[in-house]
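Worked problem 6 (solution included).
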Amino acid sequence: MRHTSRETSTQTLTRLIKALDAKHPVTITYTKADDTQTIRTIELYDITISAAGDILLKAMDRETGESRTFRLDRLVAYTIHRTAYTVPRPAADESVTPSYELAETIAPHATHLSTTARRNNLAAVFAA
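Solution. The predicted structure is:
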């Protein structure tokens, strides 16, 4: 288990992006808005930035099978598993285009970035 207080946001985000790319589930300890903590196993499907500048992790919750959004700054600890995703995704709405907000924020011309490119671009953002 990795504790986010013992690593930089860039390190945490890099590891989570790798888990997303490899489709490995992640067990997280998360602090909710009301300061209670919860432990969930999630399957990441997107990472975006909110209008307020928060990094958001969008994932399927393995226990409920529902889509959830988590703020990176509220993550307390996490463990990346080596197993595969098991939760079915909802059917994509053809009228909605896929979200690449993080890529567009960092590199507007890129619609899909490799793990290395994402890590390098995020490092540049956090260094600024």
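Discussion: The chain has a mean pLDDT of 82.
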